[in-house]
Write a structure and sequence with these properties.
single chain, alpha+beta, 4-stranded antiparallel sheet, 12 strands, elongated
């Protein structure tokens, strides 16, 4: 009997120890659960909500800022559908020399990464450090713009997605984009919120460029009107002109969208103001909106920019009375040799055409291609200054 007592005591002690451990283990989760409720459960829930809001982006197309790098600018454009990035593309990237080879490999990878990540958190492509850094910065700026538009549109139901695509009526000129062979600049005419006309007010000139662009530019113009966006294909054999055209086209679209958004925001207030004034002529003018913005010019005399051509500068001055062009003249035109004969023939015709049409939609004079192109560019800059 005495020999059994120590064993029994050992068994009892072991059983008590095991029971205590089990009890502690069953109590620990309850203790941790309480601390998690106090410190852990709420923050994750809170973190998820802001993150969801931060990811809301407006449908449409948005272009990020152009970011300068050591080898050239990088600029990213995003297409958003259903609140998700469906397409990313670099509308600008370093060109020339080794940059062409590097970016032919890097840019598609960066584009794919942006769509896959649905954010600006993408890895740099090995061997393309500068391009990758510029791409990420421009991508982030595009995302910021899309998020801002999404936040603004969230309070108006479906209006957010639609407003991103709304274009303001009138005429808008995109940025002049330099290419290896010369500048490209696109002007759009918008009516009823739709692009009704696209034209290149600048394109590379001289030598083989004349032949290339005589074929390419009309196709690009038609494509822009057909697509109603910057999503157009390059014309075969006109790679540089097509790339410049698309960049300038997108900048024109961005301006037209901004004008459309501003017009939508101010339309309610304008309607109230027109009604309270009771002035039928003022009211009709406000109602016309885009049409008047295109046709109405500020009275006075304004001189356009001097535009350099292969044979000399062209500069146009217009006189406006009663909101209409009453006189047009070329204060500069190519001179010397055959240029005198060409200028004497073409400039009077161009002047008459402007007064007749009341704008820059005039045809070039046959045999005076360079003078006509320079004239139209300077005329447009004068119209821009006059408010046309």
């Amino acid at each position: 009997m005495r020999k059994s007592h120590p064993v029994r005591r050992a068994v009892l002690a072991t059983a008590a120890t095991v029971s205590g451990i089990v009890l502690l283990l069953t109590l620990k989760p309850d203790s941790d659960q309480g601390s998690a409720d106090a410190a852990g459960a709420v923050p994750p829930a809170a973190a998820q909500s802001p993150q969801g809001g931060a990811q809301a982006i407006a449908n449409g197309t948005v272009t990020g800022d152009a970011v300068d790098t050591q080898y050239g600018a990088v600029q990213v454009r995003l297409t958003v559908s259903g609140g998700k990035i469906t397409k990313a593309e670099a509308v600008q990237s370093p060109e020339g020399g080794q940059s062409d080879q590097i970016n032919a490999n890097a840019v598609p990878k960066l584009n794919q990464a942006a769509v896959a990540a649905q954010s600006g958190e993408i890895d740099a492509v090995s061997g393309a450090t500068y391009t990758s850094a510029g791409y990420k910065k421009s991508l982030q700026s595009a995302l910021d713009k899309a998020k801002a538009a999404g936040a603004a549109g969230s309070g108006t139901g479906e209006g957010g997605a639609g407003s991103a695509q709304a274009l303001g009526d009138g005429t808008v000129t995109g940025d002049a984009v330099d290419t290896q062979y010369g500048a490209v600049q696109v002007r759009l005419t918008v009516s009823g919120g739709k692009i009704t006309k696209a034209e290149a007010v600048q394109s590379p000139e001289g030598g083989q460029s004349d032949q290339i662009n005589a074929n390419a530019v009309p196709k690009l113009n038609q494509a822009a009107v057909a697509a109603q966006s910057g999503e157009i294909d390059a014309v075969s054999g006109a790679t540089y002109t097509s790339a410049g055209y698309k960049k300038s086209l997108q900048s024109a679209l961005d301006q037209a969208k901004a004008a459309g958004a501003a017009g939508a925001a101010g339309s309610g207030g304008d309607a109230i103001g027109d009604g309270s004034d009771g002035d039928s002529s003022d009211g009709s003018g406000q109602g016309e909106g885009g049409g008047n913005a295109q046709a109405s010019l500020e009275d006075g005399t304004v001189t356009g920019d001097a535009v350099q051509t292969e044979y000399g500068a062209v500069q146009v001055r217009i006189t406006v009375e009663g909101g209409r062009i009453t006189k047009t003249e070329a204060v500069q035109a190519p001179k010397g040799g055959q240029s005198d004969r060409v200028t004497n023939l073409s400039v009077p015709r161009l002047n008459q055409a402007v007064v007749k049409t009341g704008g820059a939609d005039i045809d070039a004079v046959s045999g005076a291609t360079y003078t006509s192109a320079g004239y139209k560019k300077s005329l447009q800059s004068a119209l821009d200054q006059a408010g046309g």
